[in-house]
């Protein structure tokens, strides 16, 4: 009996080890899956969509752990839907695609103008696609954008897709626009969706001479004044009305969006000098509190008050600067207030009047004005937002350079 038990135990252990270490074809076997890190969606000539998938090639990474950039593989397929494209690619590769690690979804501007609402619903309905992946609208084709997205400081393209968006925390020139947030804003009655605006700098690609832009805040993807080998850009925002692309924001307009939405830790701006004509002063501003938004309804139209407060430090200095004088600093603070009030007001009227889109979700602040959700829906915030009037006030306390003020 004991001998029989030993045999049974041996057989069970053998079976467990065999199954555990078997190289059989299973769904979780890495040899049988293709990991997608980015997906691009373009409009096809035959009213279909062209879907491109970017895969990393792990074998290209140096075994010694060097900083050699890992290559990627880009494949495209024409299909009637996302699901059909995935199925066709599975057949072509002989592997099963997984979208569980997809970091970026890129739509071409042409397709976005026609509407991407149905595709967003499809992607959100896919259990593999993570809501945290970022959404980009490219001013060129999505395939061309992905093919020219080449990291400089990261060995893996997937890591680059995770990190490039972090620049929004200290520049304000783009925003973290995820698939989940896009979907939530699209179905919301109080706001509208947005996406990262991407593109390719053709000047860099053609190695032509770069003409410096005197106002970097007017930069936008496809036109920023940059030099170097990287040609992909992510500057500005794509503005949507529900699921349809209606416009775009440049760098300074995106900065206004980020400030009103309390999404910045700090940012650098160039303010016209109140003392010297045609000269700017570089000031780093830090919000001293969250932006206050107050909404009221006047004669049926939204009347929106926005108040922002900042502390600033002067970055640009000259030999004749008198930035330790309190009167000088007060005039600079006032100049900063006027400049930001103008920028924020222009942004708000552009998005409300021209684009008719509430990407800052100001409508959520107006909910308290209506006793019931039925009354709010009857009012129709999305339709009335274009009739809004704005009053923007900015309070800035600019200090001299910290090194000089402490000396």
List the helices and strands and how they pair.
Blueprint: H1 2-20, E1 33-43, E2 49-56, E3 72-79, H2 82-93, E4 96-98, E5 104-108, H3 109-114, H4 117-125, E6 134-138, H5 142-147, H6 157-163, H7 179-187, E7 194-200, H8 202-205, E8 232-241, E9 244-249, H9 251-260, E10 267-272, E11 280-287, E12 292-298, E13 301-314, H10 326-354, H11 373-379, H12 381-384, E14 389-399, H13 402-405
Parallel strand pairs: 1-4, 1-5, 5-6, 6-7, 13-14
Antiparallel strand pairs: 1-2, 2-3, 7-8, 8-9, 10-11, 11-13, 12-13
Helix pairs in contact: 4-7, 9-10
Query: How far is the N terminus from the C terminus?
Result: 91 Å
> Which structural class best describes the helix and strand composition?
alpha/beta
Task: Give me the strand/helix succession.
Answer: HEEEHEEHHEHHHEHEEHEEEEHHHEH
Strand content is 25-35%
What kind of sheet is the major sheet? 9 strands, mixed
Roughly what is the average pLDDT, rounded to an integer? Answer: 82
Give the low-confidence spans.
Answer: 23-28, 59-70, 204-214, 225-229
Explain what the structure shows.
The chain is an alpha/beta fold. It folds into two domains: 29-250, no CATH class; 266-407, Nutrient germinant receptor protein C, domain 3 (GMP Synthetase, Chain A, domain 3), CATH 3.30.300. Helices cover 31% and strands 27% of the residues. The chain is built from 13 helices and 14 strands. It is globular and about 90 Å long.
Keywords, please?
nine-stranded mixed sheet, 407 residues, 27% strand, GMP Synthetase, Chain A, domain 3, alpha/beta, 2 domains
């Amino acid at each position: 009996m004991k001998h029989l038990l030993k045999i049974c135990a041996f057989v069970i252990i053998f079976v467990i080890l065999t199954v555990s270490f078997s190289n059989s074809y299973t769904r979780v076997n890495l040899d049988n899956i293709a990991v997608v890190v980015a997906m691009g969606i373009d409009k096809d000539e035959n009213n279909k969509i062209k879907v491109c998938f970017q895969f990393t090639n792990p074998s290209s990474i140096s075994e010694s752990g060097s900083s050699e950039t890992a290559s990627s593989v880009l494949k495209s397929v024409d299909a009637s839907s996302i699901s059909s494209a995935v199925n066709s690619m599975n057949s072509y590769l002989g592997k099963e695609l997984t979208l569980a690690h997809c970091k970026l979804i890129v739509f071409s501007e042409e397709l976005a103008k026609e509407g991407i609402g149905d595709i967003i619903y499809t992607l959100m309905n896919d259990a593999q696609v993570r809501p945290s992946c970022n959404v980009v609208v490219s001013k060129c084709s999505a395939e061309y954008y992905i093919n020219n997205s080449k990291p400089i400081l990261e060995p893996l393209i997937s890591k680059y897709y995770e990190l490039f968006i972090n620049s929004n925390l200290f520049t304000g020139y783009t925003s973290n626009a995820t698939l989940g947030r896009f979907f939530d804003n699209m179905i919301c009655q109080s706001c509208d969706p947005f996406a990262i605006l991407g593109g390719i700098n053709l000047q860099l690609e053609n190695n032509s001479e770069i003409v410096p832009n005197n106002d970097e805040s007017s930069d936008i993807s496809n036109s920023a004044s940059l030099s170097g080998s990287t040609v992909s850009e992510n500057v500005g925002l794509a503005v949507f009305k529900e699921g349809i692309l209606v416009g775009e924001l440049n760098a300074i307009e995106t900065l206004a969006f980020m400030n009103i939405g309390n999404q910045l830790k700090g940012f650098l701006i160039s303010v016209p000098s109140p003392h010297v004509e045609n000269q700017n002063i570089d000031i780093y501003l830090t919000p001293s509190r969250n932006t206050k938004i107050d909404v009221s309804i006047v004669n049926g139209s939204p009347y929106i008050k926005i108040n922002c407060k900042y502390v600033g430090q002067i970055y640009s200095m000259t030999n004749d600067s008198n930035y330790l004088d309190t009167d000088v600093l007060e005039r600079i603070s006032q100049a900063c207030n006027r400049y930001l009030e103008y920028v924020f007001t222009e942004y708000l009227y552009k998005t409300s009047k021209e684009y008719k889109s509430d990407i800052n979700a100001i409508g959520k602040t107006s909910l308290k004005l209506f006793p019931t959700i039925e009354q709010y829906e009857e009012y129709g915030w999305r339709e009335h937002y274009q009739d809004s009037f704005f009053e923007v006030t900015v309070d800035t306390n600019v200090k001299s350079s910290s090194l000089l003020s402490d000396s």
